[in-house]
Amino acid sequence: MDLNTRDIDQWIDGWSDKMLEIWREKQLDLQVYETGELANSMTESVTHEGMSAHIVMQFLQYGVYQALGVGYGYVRANGGDLPFLGADYRREHHLDEPRKRGPAWGGGYTSGEPRKPRDWMTPKLYGSVMKMAETMAQMTGQMGVALVCDALESAREALQGSQHGSRGGNRGGASDGGLVLF
Q1: Confidence check: pLDDT of 181 > 70
Q2: From CA 42, how far away is CA 59, in angstroms rounded?
Q3: Taking a C-beta distance cutoff of 8 angstroms, is the pair 58, 16 a contact?
Q4: Spatial separation of the C-alpha atoms in residues 120 and 63, rounded to whole Å
Q5: Where is 9: in which H helix or E strand?
Q6: Band of the pLDDT at 41, cuts 50, 70, 90?
Q7: pTM of the predicted protein model
């Protein structure tokens, strides 16, 4: 397989486009949508730098809250004590009943169920990044092998050329030529 950096760049671009497509499908499967704003906010940009690339994927911050099953009422450093998740607390405060959420003029209704993580992002991302690393290692490894083979072939040709051109010359002295492999 004859690979070059253009092939790798195209593969990385295709990977990042596919990742966004997978995330959008996963959001639909897990019903992480109300207005479609999260799916529409997702963007990616890839900066290619020789044999590597810098990939940035962005989306609205509340997408992380959906994935983790957190939101209003969760505060940092609460020690994990979230009383509003307990069945008694939910019943006492009528959180177990569907109710209006959002502003009076809009919004929707809650289900009455406690929040649960709907991780549309992490499992697919982790698996895909691991697969990308494996594929990139294979592709760049193949390019490295080809580079070494080319260098060795050049060295062989250079050595054969020097044997034919200088029979018996330059005994014990420094060589005028050199051999550069990389």
Answers
A1: no
A2: 4
A3: no
A4: 9
A5: helix 5-29
A6: very high
A7: 0.59
